[in-house]
Amino acid sequence: MNPIFFGGVEGGRVKLDRPDQYLIHLSGLEGKRVEVVVRKETHPRSLPMNNYYWGVIIPLVADHLGYGKDEMHEALKVKFASTADEMGLLRVESTAKMTVERFIEYTDEIKRWSAEFLNVYVPDPGEYI
User: CA-CA distance, 48 to 104, in Å (whole number)?
Assistant: First the structure.
């Protein structure tokens, strides 16, 4: 297992939240080569965001187009969360791995498209129609 250690950067140095656990983990790697990756911490989407997507967006668009929920999800990912690589093959992004910011962008794109091309209004979270 590869644990993930969180912290911040202060004065050009990494300050870990739990340095004691980091040192314990390092002691088990003594004499071995290691890989160190440092990146900005991301937060996956929340349960309410997931519920909004599966409980509001997906059913409204799927019902309008005659798709099943899973089928609609896959079609929307291809349309709004994919890019073609240099060989022309599609790379479809996982919505489960999207950051909060990316997931909001993704759902906003679906809502705009639904309104413009399907004439289907998708309410915002907490909005009642």
Answer: 12
CA 123/CA 129 separation, integer angstroms: 7
Which tokens go with 75?
């079609």
pLDDT by residue, tens only, the chain of 129 residues: 788 888 999 999 999 999 999 999 999 999 999 998 888 877 777 889 999 999 999 999 999 999 999 999 999 999 999 999 999 999 999 999 898 899 999 999 999 999 999 999 999 988 765
* Cα separation, 129 vs 111, whole angstroms: 15
The two structure tokens encoding residue 50: 């997931």
DSSP for 76-94? Answer: HHHHHSEEE-TTS-EEEPP
Task: Give the containing element (helix H, strand E) for 58.
Answer: helix 58-65
